[in-house]
Design a protein that fits this description.
Family: Belongs to the CarA family.
Helix content: 10-25%
Strand content: 25-35%
Keywords: Amino-acid biosynthesis, Arginine biosynthesis, ATP-binding, Glutamine amidotransferase, Ligase, Nucleotide-binding, Pyrimidine biosynthesis
Number of domains: 2
CATH superfamily of the largest domain: Class I glutamine amidotransferase (GATase) domain
Shape: globular
CATH topology of the largest domain: Rossmann fold
Number of helices: 10
CATH class of the largest domain: Alpha Beta
InterPro entries: Anth_synth/Amidotransfase, CarbamoylP_synth_ssu, CarbamoylP_synth_ssu_N, CarbP_synth_ssu_N_sf, Class_I_gatase-like, CPSase_GATase1, GATASE
Number of strands: 20
CATH architecture of the largest domain: 3-Layer(aba) Sandwich
Radius of gyration: 21 Å
Protein name: Carbamoyl phosphate synthase small chain
EC number: 6.3.5.5
Length: 373
């Protein structure tokens, strides 16, 4: 391999993985995490929840379907860096417009290929997600100097990132057909398929910046409030948590997903913590405590709520329960309030490219609003 095409992934514990430059050349820093999805890499790359993370794909072949103009979950790639084993040399899909490599280069995303991602994933699983850097081109340096740069980068714990990915201005996504409800969606890193799922159910979605005041939200007279997914440490979300408490006090139907689940949980009095390596993929089982039903879900989170499966607890707004959990590790995957109309889950019911087991949760949100109307 020529020096021009050489690249290195450097972890904060000093481990270095060599490979080939992929995408843009240069240096990028972030938290190294692994994603177990075997498809949907375009959705992963454009998911704002991956802001400031270097994503390792566990699937060995990436880029087979190229890059199209329809599947983006936002208006840009948000990952800090990208790590793959065997990139496709020639994409094959009727919707493909360019290669993944070309799109990464076009958007300035520094990546690395030809990495032993199986060994890397096992390392992160044992040692935990950690700060890392991808270096190529003129940014390549001695191992010691590259490790120093990684150690000087900010940690994910304590990172307040929602404000960096939220919309600058409010916007409206009209309902398909007759408008039945108006929902205020707090954009903490929302994916484009989320409003799309709601509009199919007759919901007019008002997407709001993360710093929207309670007065501005209430002025919309929403039938419901939605808390989106997003990046960073939920312990930094004082504003969103306070806004959620206002919604609970007014007993406006509320539905949260992912980051929104953590915010609702904190509003109800639960704590949060950073997981060792998180849940990232489209094949993660979740059990509904009330029914025992198992759903296969898409997830992307490195923080979780404290609590035990099925645990009931008293909140400032009445009784509540840990409603869902992951049987792999008993991680909290959902909360539900009984005395106010609010519930949330830690996964993506709007998941693209799938699975779709959790899509009926949007119908449950509609039912909450119907009961309140």
């Amino acid at each position: 391999m020529s020096t021009r095409n050489a690249a290195a992934l450097v972890l904060e514990d000093g481990r270095v993985f060599r490979g080939a430059a992929y995408g843009a050349r240069g240096r990028t820093l972030g938290e190294a995490v692994f994603c177990t999805g075997m498809t949907g890499y375009q959705e992963t790359l454009t998911d704002p929840s991956y802001h400031r993370q270097i994503v390792v794909q566990t699937a060995p072949q990436i880029g087979n379907t190229g890059w199209n103009d329809e599947d983006d979950e936002s208006d840009r790639i948000w990952v800090s860096g990208y790590v793959v084993r065997d990139p496709a040399r020639t994409p094959s899909n009727w919707r493909s417009r360019r290669t993944l490599d070309d799109e990464l280069s076009r958007q300035g995303v520094v990546g690395i290929s030809e990495v032993d991602t199986r060994t890397l994933t096992r390392h992160l699983r044992e040692r935990g997600a950690m700060r890392a850097g991808v270096f190529s081109g003129d940014a390549l340096d001695t191992d010691e100097r590259m490790v120093e740069q990684v150690l000087a980068s900010p940690q994910m714990k304590g990172a307040d990132l929602a404000g960096e990915v939220t919309t600058a201005q409010p916007y409206v996504v009209p309902a398909l057909g007759e408008r039945r409800f108006r929902v205020a969606a707090l954009d903490l890193g929302i994916k484009s398929n989320t409003p799309r799922q709601m509009t199919r159910r007759g919901i007019e979605v008002h997407v709001l910046p993360s710093r929207t005041s309670a007065e501005e939200l209430l002025a919309l007279a929403p039938d419901g409030v939605f808390l989106s997914n997003g990046p960073g440490d939920p312990a930094t979300t004082e504003h969103a948590t306070a806004l959620t408490k206002t919604v609970l006090e007014r007993e406006i139907p509320l539905f949260g997903i992912c980051f929104g689940n953590q915010i609702l949980g904190r509003a109800l009095g639960l704590g949060t913590y950073k997981m060792r390596y998180g849940h990232r993929g489209i094949n993660i089982p979740v059990i509904d405590v009330a029914t025992g039903r198992v759903a296969i879900t898409a997830q992307n989170h490195g923080f979780a709520l404290e609590g035990e499966p099925g645990q009931r607890f008293d909140s400032p707004y009445g009784a509540a329960q840990i409603s869902h959990y992951c049987p792999n590790d008993d991680t909290v995957e959902g909360v539900r309030a009984f005395d106010v109309p609010a519930f949330s889950v830690q996964y993506h019911p709007e998941a693209a490219a799938g699975p779709h087991d959790a899509a009926p949760l949007f119908d449950e949100f509609v039912t909450l609003m119907e009961k309140k109307a």
